[in-house]
């Protein structure tokens, strides 16, 4: 469903993505792991058309993703994104955050969008927070609202960029649980994460990135327990037993 | 003191007529400055080279010319090009354009203070640029822009006095005429100053309220 071929991306003289090939199939959960600075966010942002790229191709359902094309807006309603820092709209309530896209982008009738929004909040165990503003919510609650906002577009896939990295440790679990539930319902997901437990249990495949390249990929259990590449081993040993 | 009150009673009606004109010209100029300033700020914020460059050049040119000269230009030079404006129109348009540049700088600072993550979140659910501005960026910029907006409004109000040079019959103009015919400079200009304060003190209070209510926490 998402196909990335020979993707190159530079910021000025700094080449950040050095030829990425990857696919995400419908219904698949793919986790993208790797050290900080290896280019994971940049890759995700290219897929969402938030960054331009110089070389290669990204296709969603055979439609070319290009940040500068008008078609990008339609593609974004099909592949939405959840950010590390939530990026909820602070001047709107939880429910308004969720209905903003359906009402103003897709033109859904307000009543329908609100009913769907309330259902999504209930799914995120936040039914009682519909009228709360983001600043009144904990980080974990905000991120679950953000997931509901991404879901409200009825997307075919969701990109997650380190969705739990900005959270206090005790709030990580509730967000991962929500994501796991999504995965079980068959949502296509591409997830940048440092949560190896989540990757092992939920991901179908894991991609390991280092220095702008995908160094190794494979089924989650296999790659995480029996990494082939030295850099993968290094990374995993550092992240699993820090210090 | 008695004489002052006596004279004041005679002069006040004329000066109040001027005050109405001052309020009118300030209001019209404020509307022009706000709308046009917003357009200039959005042009710069758009990140589109031509638009941004055009807006920046315009702001720098206008800010580099004294308002007085701009008013002369609009009132005395434009008629040579077939654009005939009344003194009031020329004053409102001149002040409006001059202040649109100050407003544009205020607005731009407010737009840029909005977290870039907000724009990305809006885009990630498929919002167009216009929709992103309208629903996400402008409502947030609004809060940060209010306090400086209030201050610029006060400056604009006081600068309406410059329109007296192109014969707009606002407070200062009326005061000058009165003073010239009565020689009661002290009485007349004390009243003139008092009238300006009567306008600007409420605006100061409003601005400081906005500062407290919406300013940086
Ligand atoms: N907007 C940008 N301008 C310049 N360099 C950037 C920008 N965004 C990211 N980079 C650089 O690109 C590299 C990869 O960043 P990123 O994709 O955020 O890595 P990761 O998400 O894996 O930590 C880093 O060296 C980072 O400094
Ligand atoms: Mg990152």
UniProtKB/TrEMBL annotation, chain A:
Domain called ABC transporter: residue spans: 2-236
Matches recorded under CDD domains: ABC_HisP_GlnQ
Organism, scientific name: Pseudooceanicola albus
SMART domains for the chain: AAA
Subcellular location: Cell membrane
Keyword annotations from UniProtKB, A to Z: Amino-acid transport, ATP-binding, Cell membrane, Membrane, Nucleotide-binding, Transport
GO CC terms in record: plasma membrane
Database matches in Pfam families: ABC_tran (PF00005)
InterPro entries with a match to the protein in the record: AAA+_ATPase, ABC_ATPase_HisP-typ, ABC_transporter-like_ATP-bd, ABC_transporter-like_CS, MetN_ABC_transporter-like, P-loop_NTPase
Protein's recorded name: ATP-binding cassette domain-containing protein
Example of a GO MF term: ATP binding
PANTHER family linked to this entry: AMINO ACID IMPORT ATP-BINDING PROTEIN, GLUTAMATE_ASPARTATE IMPORT ATP-BINDING PROTEIN GLTL
Entry membrane topology: Peripheral membrane protein
Domain of life: Bacteria
Family of this protein: Belongs to the ABC transporter superfamily.
Transmembrane segments: none
Automatic annotation (TrEMBL), chain B:
A GO term for molecular function: transmembrane transporter activity
Membrane topology reported for the UniProt record: Multi-pass membrane protein
Stretch forming the signal peptide: none
Compartments in which it is found: Cell inner membrane; Cell membrane
CDD domains documented for this protein: TM_PBP2
One of the GO BP terms on file: amino acid transport
Gene3D superfamilies for the chain: MetI-like
InterPro entries associated with the record: AA_ABC_transptr_permease_3TM (IPR010065), ArtM/GltK/GlnP/TcyL/YhdX-like (IPR043429), MetI-like (IPR000515), MetI-like_sf (IPR035906)
Bilayer-spanning residue ranges: 20-45, 57-78, 186-210
Superkingdom to which the source organism belongs: Bacteria
Residue ranges of domain ABC transmembrane type-1 in the record: 19-207
One cellular-component annotation, GO: ATP-binding cassette (ABC) transporter complex
UniProt keywords, alphabetically: Amino-acid transport, Cell membrane, Membrane, Transmembrane, Transmembrane helix, Transport
Entry similarity comment: Belongs to the binding-protein-dependent transport system permease family. HisMQ subfamily.
Job description of the protein: Part of the binding-protein-dependent transport system for glutamine; probably responsible for the translocation of the substrate across the membrane.
Name this protein carries in UniProt: Putative glutamine transport system permease protein GlnP
